[in-house]
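[User] At your convenience, examine this fold.
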Amino acid sequence: MQSYAWRGRNHRGDLIEGRVDAETEDAVAAQLLSTGVTPVQITAKSTRLDAPEQNGWQALRAAPVNDHDTLLFSRQMHTLQRAGVPILRALAGLQASTDKRSLILLLVDLRASLDQGRELATAMARHPAVFSPFYVAMMRVGEMTGKLTEAFARLAEHMEFELDVRARVKQALRYPIMVMAAIAIAMVVINVFVIPTFATVFAGFKAELPLMTRVLLGVSAFTVRWWPLLLAGAVAAGWGLRAWLATPRGRYRWDKFKLRLPVAGPIVLKATLARFARSFAMAQSSGVPITRAMTVVAQTVDNAFIGERIEQMRDGVERGESISRCAAAAGVFTPVVLQMIAVGEETGELDTLLVEIAQMYERETDYAIKGLSASIEPLLLAIIGVMVMVLALGVFLPLWNLGQAAAGRGG
């Protein structure tokens, strides 16, 4: 990755400059345009600022900077900036107050980048695993408009909502996942250990077995004989699925499929639209042009299908169409939301109504997550009932019939 020095003009026409690490000059230009800066000059530099080095053992032991660390960092920076503490002193204070090595290395690198004259957003862009493109874009907008304190506060609120939704979804899915795992383990144990024992018993009677019993015995024999091949096939399928999801086409199809799931699909859609509305409101209130704000927001919704719809909205706005008409053509918003967008566009308070839309979707997401476990429990009971029925018909019914036949012969 090469270091580039750039000069450009913001949306007010002011000449600004900075440095950024990227693969090519086109990547630098695209990054600047997405944040509202029109590049004037981009020059490659022979040296780049590298992060502090650490040995292999320290790298293995150091826990990576997670989303909770980033949220706490945003909260602390907001407080320090509001108190009037300069950025370098604030970063130094945070560095001295943490014991997490990976976070210390991050803060050291940010301070070193600022010492060399780079902007804070440019320094953060060098750590894509910690700071998302939307986070970096909001930092750049905050620096350009002089609202860095407000940008930290809004980003902290945004991340807090994201983490809260993830935590509640994990909590709601914990019980169903445990039940499904127990069912899978039970099926493996039954196929590998239990049914072969019954097969020996059935073979001793030399009697005609029911169809369900023969199916179970065949599946068990196949599993016991070919389990290495089945295991290798499962690993290969998992690897292939992961590689397919890493492609743009695979990611798009998977994200579209998630929205169609019976129970989880509406929750994913509402959470994604809440993320879009809040992110778009933040960009709008910070002074980012609509088309560039949509470009950045499309990368932050974490859903390729919805992201493509947002990019279609951006293309429509660039052609001169209204936001409400483009939103209606996207086909992902409810009529109530479309009406609110139209009202906000007419009154010039689109960012305020976008916040209300985000809050509405967040409330609906919260309500849906609370009922997630109750919605999944009937499905789990049906799966358990089918498994018990199969075992009863395939294993215990033949034993009962053979026992009755033996008792009849004994009488």
